[in-house]
Design goal:
261 residues; alpha+beta; 4 helices; 10 strands; disordered C terminus
Length: 261
């Protein structure tokens, strides 16, 4: 396969290097290409700043998406389970609508578990405002460097400034090169209902073009009446072309973690 050499690079390379000019030109170009794609790691401070700016100034192109959604829910203590699939449409303004939903399983799971989740998820953005990951809501402390699906990740410990509904204590994992979110998990510090003892979530992200969108959401809720509620929500873009990386430097999204993780 031939490599097209930009004229500016050709002029700066010696005409002959040990009698093998083409070979060394190709090696030099390959090193330049690898360096461009790999990028330089940010500092933890720069990564968290970039994430916070991106969350605040969300680009319109990062909305207006259609996802195939799969929801699996269960009540282990009651031996009930069910699954729902369909489409999730997110508009440019952040509005969420679910369409073409199909359900199989126990009706109680459909009406008392999945339906409540869908109603909450479809709330207007302003209805859940004030609970986002910001410096006003959380103390953001760099904790460690780890790996996530082959990527280097900066892990930050999040501790809410106040104990109120919608805030949690947990961790935020960011791509060390781009500051993009990889994982967010936590335990809510205040129960949203008198019927809920504890509420934990794990949110993993996927790359779609130049945006990072939710890929998998795991919920574990300990209730006072039905016991433990477990739910897994999987999202995949309907248009596979939208998940193709624009820079051509690798796969569009990190590998999907195993369902047992």
């Amino acid at each position: 396969m031939s490599i097209v050499e930009p004229r500016s690079i050709r002029r700066n390379l010696p005409a002959v290097v040990n009698g093998r000019p083409k070979f060394f030109r190709k090696v030099a170009l390959l090193l330049l290409f690898v360096g461009f794609c790999s990028g330089q790691s940010l500092t933890p401070g720069a990564a968290i700043d970039r994430y916070l700016i991106g969350s605040r100034d969300r680009q319109p192109g990062c909305s207006d998406q259609v996802f195939a959604v799969q929801i699996d829910a269960s009540l282990p203590n009651l031996e009930k389970q069910g699954s729902m699939s369909g489409l999730k449409v997110v508009s440019r303004t952040g509005q969420t609508v679910y369409r073409d939903l199909r359900f199989t399983g126990d009706k109680f799971i459909k009406t008392s578990v999945i339906a409540r989740f869908l109603a909450h998820d479809a709330k207007p953005p302003e209805a859940v405002a004030g609970t986002g990951v910001t410096r006003q809501n959380y103390s953001l402390r760099y904790d460690r460097t780890s790996t996530y699906n082959g990527l280097v990740a900066y892990v930050f410990h999040l501790k809410p400034m106040q104990k109120r509904v919608g805030l949690f204590e947990g961790e935020l994992w960011l791509d060390a090169t781009t500051g993009a979110p990889l994982r967010l998990w936590g335990d809510f510090v205040k129960s949203p209902s008198v019927f809920v003892r504890t509420f934990r979530f794990v949110q993993d992200y996927q790359r779609i073009g130049q945006c990072f969108q939710p890929l998998r959401l795991l919920l574990t809720v300990d209730t006072r009446i039905a016991g433990k509620v477990e739910m897994a929500v999987w999202l995949n873009p309907v248009d596979s072309q939208s998940a193709t990386a624009a820079d051509g430097c690798g796969p569009a999204s990190p590998a999907i973690p195993g369902r047992g993780q």
